[in-house]
Amino acid sequence: MIYLKCSKVIDRISDIIDGQASLFVRMRFYGHLMICKNCRRYFNQFKTVHELAGKVSSDDLPPDFDHVMAFVMDEIEKQDEKKDV
Amino acid sequence: MGGQSRQQQEATAETAQVDALKAGHPSAWRDLLSCYGPSLLNYATRMLGDRGTAEEILQDSLVNIYRTIDRFEGHCSLKSWLYRGVHNRAIDEIRRRKRYVDVGEDGLEKAFDDKGQWKHDCPGWDGFAAKNFDEKRLLTVVGEQMNRLPHAHREVLLMKEVEGLCATEICAALEISPGNPRIRIHRARAALRAAVVGDRL
């Protein structure tokens, strides 16, 4: 199997975690991780942070959208009235 | 309808939705705002760093979107178009305040030697392990660090990881070429990892 350099392994991480890598690339990638402590460590950190980033949601921001909605709908109605005149 | 794929059904539903929006039906606008408004507010808040300004920017953007909906020709999804409107207005505000932070040099490129091998060992999670960081606290750190990233990284990460836009939608929202998001998403993720771990890679 063709050897994959560490720099190329790191470049491929997003393709791997997004499911965009071919089977051939995945085999070379995970084969490399088995023998390279640094890439394995980097990959684990990258993947963990990526998974946590996906959990950073609107939860910590109150979904208090009502007054924005009221303002915008008010503007829309005003503009509609202008159109009618 | 039974013979249509899910994608075709969604496209048909969106066309009907856009027609209702262009006709100015208040219920169509209310539905649109209920569906996307909170996510757009979240995006604007994280881009701008303060809720009050984000609300003002969002109000302006949405009223402007209402005024210009006739120009929407369906070259991208309605969702991308909404994000583009709010994103452009947010970036204008950030630039007006001279707070726009561009992406600096990519530290990762310097981490490898001519043969593409690590020059130094990749740092571990020791700092976090020593402080007994559980997932909840680590999640807080990730959220905080995301808000501190340069805007060019932050906008991609917010759209991809937090708001769940696909690469095509991100391209349309940020008006970037189709080959670009893969690299930008990867670099933004690498920058977030570096910020969380606290190294320069």
Tally of strands of chain B: 0
Helix and strand composition category of chain A: mainly alpha
Oligomer: heterodimer
- Radius of gyration of chain A, rounded? 24 Å
Q: Class by helix and strand content of chain B?
A: mainly alpha
What's the overall geometry of chain B? elongated
The major pleated sheet of chain B works out as: none
* Count of helical regions of chain B: 9
Low-confidence stretches of chain A: none
Residues in helices of chain B, as a percent range: 55-70%
- Estimate what percentage of residues of chain A fall within beta strands: under 5%
Task: Write the element-wise H/E pattern of chain A from the N-terminal end onward.
Answer: HHHH
Shape of chain A: elongated
Secondary structure: elements and pairs:
The complex is a heterodimer of chains A (85) and B (201).
Chain A: H1 6-17, H2 23-35, H3 37-53, H4 66-84
Helix pairs in contact in A: 1-2, 1-3, 2-3
Chain B: H1 6-22, H2 26-48, H3 51-68, H4 78-96, H5 126-130, H6 135-148, H7 151-162, H8 167-174, H9 180-197
Helix pairs in contact in B: 2-3, 2-4, 3-4, 4-8, 7-9
